[in-house]
Amino acid sequence: MLFTTDKQTLEDLNIFGKHGTDSIFSIFNRCTTRGGAAVLEEMFRHPLSNDQAINQRSNIIRYFAEKGISFPFSATDFDALEPYLNNTDERSKLSAEDNSISKKLSNLIGLDAETAVVYRGVSTLTEMLKAFHDFVISLDLVEGDFYTSEAEAIVGLLTTLPYVPLSSDGKGKLSHVHMAGNDIIFRFRHRNAVQNLLRYIYDLDVYISVAKVAQERKFVFPKALSKNTHDMVIEGVYHPQVKNAIANSIHITPAGNVIFLTGANMAGKSTFMKSLSICLFLAHMGFPLAAKKVEFSVLDGIYTTINLPDDLGMGASHFYAEILRVKKMAKELGEGKSLFIVFDELFRGTNVKDAYEGTVAITGAFAKKNNSMFLISTHIIEAAEVLRKECPNVRFVYLPTKMKGTQPVYTYTLKEGVTDDRHGMVIINNEHILDILEAGIIKQNLA
Amino acid sequence: MSFIADKQTLEDLNLMGKYKPNSVYSIFNQVRTAGGERLLDEMFRNPLKDPETINQRSSIFKYFQDKNLEFPFKNEEFNVIENYLSMGTAGNTLTVMTGVFYRKIAQSLLRDDQFQMLYIGLLNAIAGLKALGEFFNALKEDDHPYQNQLRKAKAIFADTRLAWLSSPDHLTDLPVMKVAKYDCLLRNTLRKEMEQLLEIVYDLDVYIAVSKVSKAKNLTYALALPKETNLFKAKGLRHPALKRAVGNPLIFSQANNFLFLTGANMAGKSTFMKAFGIAVYMAHMGFPVAADEMTFSIKDGLYSSINVPDNLNLGLSHFYAEVLRVKHVAEEVASGKNLVVIFDELFKGTNVKDAYDATLAVTRSFSKYRNCLFIISTHIIEVGAALGEGCENIELAYLPTVMQGNVPKYTYQLKEGITSDRQGMMIIENENILELIQGK
Asked: Do B266 and A336 touch (CB under 8 A)?
């Protein structure tokens, strides 16, 4: 089964970002090649839902991160390669027979553009394949290294490819006959094998670029557990795009799989929700994470509702949009999927009474789904009292507000319980708003 | 002291901004001349504070709307005239005339085009002045609000030195002598009069532009009363930038100067509040308002708090920013000013208990001031029930939600009381969400 998510979630978490803005994707995209970037995007579009595949990928990246290996090719190599390999026109083949004096002469004077591309392509690829072979051998992989199986496949492909390699001293130039021979092998006869090799190169590019990010940012690698454990240990998770972000830890088990989050508006509720969701999203890709330790049982999908657009022009009510979203998730939950579901300020578009009842009903219903995990934030702290009685698996956490003089300050550190901050009135009293108004009235009455 | 409306208020109501889509300014900015635009700008920046001036101005607009007059110039035409008349000419008759002759000679000898430019400017100015003279002549000098300005304009045209303007000669092919004479007259001798005339044209431009917008949008002119009466009365009050906006009645008086507004998010609370704020502001400018009928007492200023953006980058807490704003308004109200105050969803950035206490306390304190007008909206409908004693001047109103099948619809019609809409649970039940979660 595929790992599912949707557009709203990708936007909430800023996975791809709007054009030109920094996104989660852009944090990891240090790929040298365009092909590598495409593979990376594919990974972001399709996170994995199989614990073995996740662990395999994350172990490979970890291997490269630990060894500090850098990518053996430069971007310019690929500039020559891509147009060459994309050209599958038979007429552009280099012909071995056509090696007359006149051809040589005209080649001396100047190659036509297409032939020049082919020449450069063949020689670049011939060199690259050798370099790739040398690189894989130089890794000196042993049984048990996670890249070993891929390396074996690569070496296998390279040895079966019947092309004429460069002489081992690396200086020699291929003769025209060998060039023509290689051209036919690369582009036509063994096209698939060459494409596979390229894909390995692109994968390698992704592994190494992600590994570099992991090293630089001191990200940790997740450990995926099998689906049925429904366990999640996340320590020291923070938002990778927030400077000096504060880390939080949370442990979610079936005995407390509904997290009920409260706190003031600026206290960091949304940021925490985003940090956790991004962490889980990347974890399902096997990518390194902005956290200290992550162990999670694999889920079937993530759905977040954090910045649901509240657009007047849209016509549809925000509340109704929220209902439709809850309904969509309800359907998926009803199918028995294990999901991670996040709602920021559920039902904020309606009056408090309504929002209260809605929050209690929906949270209560979610709480019966032991195989999924929920993170719900709200301003309606009253809902907590009812939920506490009725649903033993709802866990209450909050982000506190502290007063420093008259200014509220935020710790951004998760605490157990429900917020009992009453700073609203404290601030109003500190600012003497009511006194000002009272004094004004007295003055008016005297006058 | 001028009418107070700070930056946030102007932004909340989207009043200013030539290039902002749907700003109130852009609705009225149909003027043809740069001078007219400057004047309009000035009017928007400085609303009036005296009922007589307000009524005077609005009656002029009304006069033009009733007469249905066209601005007597095309855009390009007037630009040429304006440029010509504002070309500086210091000195005396002799130097001006010499200048004309010099240019004429330069034209024939040096192929200089200065004379040609002067000539075209003059011809245009003459044609324009003729048209303007006819325009004013067509207006009768009976008892109407535009009379003073009209008289001033007519006096300028009545000057004997301009008598040649009305001569039937077609003034197209002027000899150099006449060019020099007329040029000197318009740019030198009658320079002051011409400047006055330009000012009158700018005024005219604004009057005609605004009255046209008023007619096209079906606006009305509000009647300004002295501040002591403390009254606001409107029928069919609506938002001027919205097509097919729904009108609502709204009445404030000394005994009833506080509106407590509830309703769902899309029900139109903010739009209604903005419509009210815009009407108050426009009325203080003497401009037409989007209503069927409106009477109001002059106020000292307008404060609103709608759309306070929830900006993370701001650093300052949203709640704290809101508190500071309320404090600022409280100080202004306490200083004895007569203000209009609009608060949309106060304290929404904090938990409900806190917001309830804060909204209740602030509402109660403000309601003691009978000389101001207040509208406060909230989602915390319980506050309405708790207001009780001492708040008899608070009127409760709500914007209802009606269910049409499973979809909520909004009437945008103000109703008395507190919303009792419980569509929330109804929709949840209608959509079978709780069953869906269980996989039934």
From this structure: no
